[in-house]
Amino acid sequence: MLDRVLVVEDDETVRTLLRFLLEDESIQVVEASSGTQAVERFDAEVFDLVLLDIRLPGMSGFDVCRHIRRKSNVPVIMVTAQQDSHDVVTGLEIGADDYVTKPFNDRELMARVRVQLRRRGGETDLERLTVAN
After folding, report:
1. Average pLDDT in the 96-105 region?
2. Is the whole model's pTM more than 0.90, yes or no?
């Protein structure tokens, strides 16, 4: 089964680049261009990972991350131009699993995505084994 990633990015060029990078790794991509749209899609579908910008129309990436954390432990990687240490700390403290600044290195970002998907898969397998015992 393909991994599913929600890409939340208001810049169409960046969103398209992320989609191409993920699809090149055989990852299914669902896109959202606003915080509001991201929450609607997250609530309606199941995802293995969320790539999330901070500065979004509708609601901020921080608010989207808080919404996700109230419902799920799905990995969240903040992908944003915000390099201020306050934003990095805030993102991590509200529940993001990683933080990548733009412009990003494609190979590094995809390595971080694979790490989170691997961890997610490992946790799912562990949970299934624990329930079976």
Report:
1. 94
2. no
